[in-house]
Amino acid sequence: MIVKNQGKFRFWAVQAAEGIDPLLWDPPPPSPGSPGPLQCYGVGPFGDLNCSWETLRHLGAPSTLHLQSQKYHPNRNWTLAVPIGQSWVTIPREQLTTSDELLVWGANAGGPLWPPVFVNLETRMKPEAPRLDPDVDVLEDDPMEATVQWSPPMWPPHKVLVCQFHYRRCQEMTWTLLEPELKSTSLTPVGIQDLELATIYEVSGRCRMENEEDLWGEWSPILSFQTLPSAPKDVWISGNLCGTQSGQKSLLLWKAPEHCVQVSYRVWFQVKGQELILEETPCCSSSIPAQAEWATVSAINATSWEPLTNLSLVCLGLGSAPHGVVVSSIAGRTELLVTWEQGSSEPQEHVVDWAGDGDHLEDLSWVRLPPGNLSALLPGNFKEGVPYRITVTAVSSGGLYPAPSVWTFREELAPLAGPGLWLLQDAPPEIPNIAWGEVPRHQLRGYLTHYTLCTQSGTRPPVCRNVSGSTQNFSLPDLPWGPCELWVMASTIAGQGPPGPSLRLHLPDNTLKFKILPVVLFLWSLFLMGYCVSLATSRWPHLWHKVLPHWVWEKVPDPANSHFSQPYVEEVPQAQPPKDLPIMEVEDIEPLPVMEPRQAYTRLDSGYEKHFLPTPEELGLLGPTQAPGPGLNQPPRLGEGCSFDS
Fold first, then answer.
1. What is the bridge-based pairing of β-strands 448-457 and 482-492?
2. Which of 408, 486, 525, 589 is a plausible cystine mate for 327, CB 3.0–4.6 Å?
């Protein structure tokens, strides 16, 4: 039949090419279900007629649309102009006859483009969308089921509509079609089975005429409803609960329910045998009180048959904890592979948690594994150069066995900064002793291999040396005096980082002490020599006489201390200044004879000074041939001697 109609269309096109007016030709109606670029349908029982088409490249777009009545007005044609670039046309209902049958085709340049389409205005209609009742009845039984009431669009009672419905979870893309299709005559409620707790579902529906299987109406607006809340299935700990650092905050975490659900929770903690209840706790964390032993989480308004979620908070010994934790990256992938060895006891499960350096406690991620699994592929987009802390914990009914945390990198990068320097005060100023701190882990971006210490004195070129990564102080005894600048760089396996903040010093002249030292030694030797001489003089005078010449050890008086030939002057008290005295009568008398001034007393009776009086020859008074006169340099006679008046 389709081939025959296509042949008629070819004949129709040939007639147009030969000059025969195809509009005067009465084409046979094609099959209503035949495919083609043109589709026409009525909107609702009393709506307009919409016609739309797909433009074919080899045929082009129509410039006019032609309609021909087949039931009430045979050979009656309507022609509608099509705007350029438009692919649809709406024919008002007022221009049509109810229950009429039409042939519709498109034409361009006087010739048809496609086979005509047969349209029955009585049945070729798109119904509007059904209406869904927002009050959804959700049953608490297990398995959970929801019932949705609906009503068909406004439609003549004698015309039957067939409607279908589908549903999906919130934020999912795929819809699940519900069977069977429902008719407007029965209005059977829509039943959705095997629902999950704490989940939001979306449902929608559409309808069609019973005899038009391929002409569905539009989907109804989405109706959302939520199932009953439930306690979280996955609860874990974030923080240093089992660590040695006291006073650090720890959080009880649980994963948020999926599919757009908002749930309020109730948390119980058992502290020293007593229960501490926290009402109306938002999702999805709660602070753990000190010395808590157990934690229990439930959802408010949850079902009665759902169990609560419990977790032991007791930290057990390290002997049963996992050991030998190794983290490795996978080439070309962003995941991390964690492997470990099991402890001495058989746990119920293993938990592997991880967080980036500097992340908040709430940002912890974790996965649970059966006890037989000793490896885990951590999902997520682990970034290059970011340090991640990974912890493996064995969980048993009695408590937790955490292994020491491991810091790892998916891929190491060069450091972003260098360490800061400072000068230690316990070193002499000419031999500086410097120290530096650690580079923060997020700036190091890898495992530290070594430090590079650089020094620059004045205008000299820098001198650098590598220092072990375990060293954080260094002594520099060989620096020249004057201004000096120092800095340190950190290195990883990926390369060396930039220099850290520099330290500027001014070292004193180290050669100054070597210039002063000879002078100090010379003065010290003179002091020792003088001390030895004075000691020898006081204790061994006979040795002094034997070793030194007589003019050194002979006690010759200092002429400055001798009173020889110095006149004796008697001290006379000075006269007092005149004062006002009473007037007296003075009588002239003969003056007394003037006394010769008394000669200065000279001590010549001292044998000590006599012995050392110079001879005339020494004074140069006598020549070498002049005989000594009497009384000069002659020995005194017996009984005579030199005497001096006192």
1. antiparallel
2. 408
